[in-house]
Write a structure and sequence with these properties.
Elements lengths: L3 H9 L4 H7 L4 H9 L6 H11 L3 H5 L10
Helix pairs in contact: 2-3
């Protein structure tokens, strides 16, 4: 599964893959594989990214088009 939304969210914040990888305490190579869908994103990383971008995990996973987090 290709995660275009991860790339779009990252680029919207003018971040590069290395900067986001540091947030996740992983390498740029591993993060790149997440964006390309070559590696499954661990739940822990998915939650960190959703909180960081202030979107739902469903948005990142493409299950909804709503960015807003429902509380």
């Amino acid at each position: 599964m290709y995660f275009q939304r991860l790339k779009d969210l990252r680029e919207d914040r003018d971040l590069n893959q290395t900067e986001v990888a540091k947030l996740l305490f992983t390498s740029q190579t591993v993060y790149s594989r997440y964006e390309r869908g070559a590696l499954t994103i661990p739940v822990e990383h998915l939650l960190i990214l959703a909180d960081f971008y202030n979107v739902s995990t469903d948005y990142i996973l493409g299950r909804t088009s709503k960015k807003e987090v429902n509380i």
